[in-house]
Amino acid sequence: MRKGDNTSAEAVALRRSAEVQVQSKAAEELPPGTDDDMRRLVHELQVHHVELEMQNEELRQAREALEVSRNKYAELYDFAPVGYFAFDAHGLIREVNLAGAQLLGIERQLLDNRPFSQYIADAEGRAVFSNHLEMVLHRRVTLRCEIRLLVGDGIAVHCQLQSIAVSIIEPKAEYVLTSIIDVTVRKQLEEKLQNAHDQLELTVQKRTGELTKANMQLLQEIEERKEAEKSLHDALAQIKRLKELLQAENIYLQQEVAREYNFGEVIGQSSAMSYVFFRVEQVAPQNATVLLLGETGTGKGVVARAIHSSSARKDRPMITVNCTSLPANLIESELFGREKGAFTGANVRQIGRFELADGGTIFLDEIGEMPLELQSKLLRFIQDGEFERLGNPRTIKVDVRIIAASNRNLEEEIRNGRFREDLFYRLNVFPITIPPLRQRTEDIPLLVHHFIAKFNKKMGKKIESISKETMKALQEYFWPGNVRELESVVERAVITSPGTSLQVLDRFETFRKAGGLEAQDIKALADLEHDHILQVLKNTGWRIEGKNGAARLLGLNPSTLRARMRKYGILRQ
């Protein structure tokens, strides 16, 4: 049913109701016998009156409902959590709710017809707002934008505008209805989120770079490990060999520590020993082979130890081999080592002295006693640094410095066919001759006092002095056993001396004839002094005086040296 039909039906029903009410009243009020027309007219008036009253009641009820609805919507409009504005086409504020006024921090009535742009924080925002109004009026759709508004005491807040164009406020006038919400917190959260995102991106990039680098390093390590695995078996074998070498070296060093040196340290201030010290200082830092020559007991082993201790190899061991103390049939296995079962009686594997000395020094004492057949192997080792253990064909290469010593005349041994000439040339790279004790008698007091202190400590004695006569006797003795013999004499004297003065009871008179040395002994001493002076002069380029002159090295006054040269007929060559 249409709206018009509903209205007619309501009017008919209303009229019928009014007629019923009028008839009931008329029956009570009109007197009987009244005229029909009068009754009809009165009836109509009464019906109409009732209709009006009923309509007025309906209108009153509708007005009250409308008032209630209007109040509800007014409250919803004013107290909504969103600011509502109505703008004209020029951006003037025509209407604003209470929330909008509170957002701007201005009383509501002061905002009427004010330009909204004056509350925008920046020129960019004003341009955005103007363009927003234009687009909303032109496109007639809901649009959004974001600008910053100045609120309260000039604080800028981020706001979101949502607008639509309407024509219901004034006839023939277009307005823009806009809702405005404060999105400052959201904006801050977005900025924090963006910053966190950027930071995360940087962290991811950095971590990615680190992981890429770590991956490359891992790949490199994998390659290196593959390469290392290729040589693992050789490395294990090398470790095993080094372990055996270390064990053997440890045993040897323990034996060396258990033994006490015959001489102690090198002692002397004579010109002959000064020259020896000079030669030691020259060769010690080098890796050159050294040949020490001198009589038995002169201290060749001590000088060898001094060379090793002053070299770059001092942190590695110096292995000593006395060629006279080893049986001829065992010296090869002692030097180069042997495998188990290499010969009868070889029940265990043995590492040779050259392997023990790897990185250090080997001292071959009394090299002139080495069997001729073994000299060729030693020559090969000096040339190539290689050898094989007995019973094993595998070549072993080591880095060893050789110091050899001999009390024999090796040149004479070569002439007699007992020493290889080529081996001599290999050993004689840097020869040092250790003078016998009889050629450096001025060192005897130093040696005597040194040995007295040594044996005092060892035996708990308190020898404090030695008579001039005893010292003179010691200096005049020929000392065929050199320093070793002197040490033995002092040791016996310390044992037998009852007091604090050293008393030597050895038979020094047996070497004397007619109160002194035999003529041939005196001649031998003169020849040795002649040769020594000549050698020093050659080494200094025949320079006598000065810091590096022969007189300084010999410990003589230059005039004394010239007198000795005249005495022995030494002329510059």
Written overview of the protein:
Helix content is 53%, strand content 13%. With 573 residues, it is α/β, with parallel strands linked by helices. A five-stranded antiparallel sheet has the order 2-1-5-4-3, with helices on both faces. Strands 7-8-11-6-12 form a five-stranded parallel sheet. A two-stranded antiparallel ribbon has the order 9-10. A hairpin with a 5-residue loop joins strand 1 (83-87) and strand 2 (93-96). Helix 1 packs across helix 2 and helix 14 crosses helix 16 (482-496). The protein starts with a helix and ends in a 5-residue tail after the last helix. Residues 257-264 and 509-519 have low confidence and may be disordered.
Write the layout of secondary structure elements.
Layout: H1 3-29, H2 36-79, E1 83-87, E2 93-96, H3 98-104, H4 123-139, E3 143-151, E4 155-166, E5 175-182, H5 184-230, H6 232-258, H7 271-283, E6 290-293, H8 300-309, E7 318-322, H9 331-336, H10 353-356, E8 361-365, H11 372-384, E9 386-388, E10 395-397, E11 401-406, H12 410-415, H13 421-427, E12 430-433, H14 444-459, E13 465-466, H15 468-476, H16 482-496, E14 501-502, H17 519-539, H18 550-554, H19 558-568
Parallel strand pairs: 6-11, 6-12, 7-8, 8-11, 13-14
Antiparallel strand pairs: 1-2, 1-5, 3-4, 4-5, 9-10
Helix pairs in contact: 1-2, 14-16
